[in-house]
Amino acid sequence: xxxxxxxxxxxxxxxxxxxxxxAKSDKEIVTLGADLSETQKSEMLREMKADENAKxxxxxxxEEYKYLGDVLSSKxxxxxxxxxxxxxxxxxxxGINIELxxxxxxxxEAAFLNALNTVGIEDADIYVTAPGKVSGTAALxxxxxxxxxxxxxxxxxxxxxxxxxxxxxxxxLSEELGDNKTNxxxxxxxxxxxxxxxxxxxxxxxxxxxxxxxYDINLTKNQEDKLVNLFNNMKNADVDWNRVADxxxxxxxxxxxxxxxxxGEKAVENxxxxxxxxxxxxxxxxx
Length: 287
Fold this sequence. Notes:
It comes from Peptoniphilus porci. By secondary structure, this protein is an alpha/beta fold. It contains 12 helices and 5 strands. It has a 5-stranded mixed sheet, with helices on both faces. Strand 1, helix 2 (38-48) and strand 2 (55-59) form a beta-alpha-beta unit.
């Protein structure tokens, strides 16, 4: 029964994933890994369907180490920069959409959205890819560079570092807890910090423990420590907490309204019926 319930939950999560609808952009910027061969660069541009007038910038492995070196091992980062992305900036209020190619194997759209929300990147369509299988963590460095190129403004270094840390922590936590639980705890902690900022690391830990208990999430000591370190660093970074809180509220409201709506209830029931029939079919093969 537990396996059946888990499969139903996974199926429902897939149905709830947003579909990226790319609108016409005001400015298009492509970020390419500096270690791509010329052939690979051409392949990436074709895959991205980049405009011939798109601005192209490169990301080096040294830059990846600068922002990921404190949260990933050298083995995880690697010695080549190959992750690439295309960012299409749109008019204010358009919202943000993220799509990942099949070669991005660990980082999720939700993890990118959270990290971009932390630094304040909005109103853009983003596609992340690579010529081979990669985790996807290094792509954020290029996206942040594209934002600086687009606005002409430098993002604070502590903000860029904490955004990369958030991407890594959320990605690893999602592998262990699942996307939904991880999203719940990340957004809830952000919302709570925006309303009542913890004074020190001890209060950050208490806040995280309270949120985990609220959502009935059992964190290991290692998981809790990583979250405490992340949000303590975020507390001390140049984050626009009013905007972050607004996004957190929208996330929670959207999820709640969908699940309680006729469409949400129907999606749950349809997914349950389909998956139960599918599971029964699989089980019958072994009888």
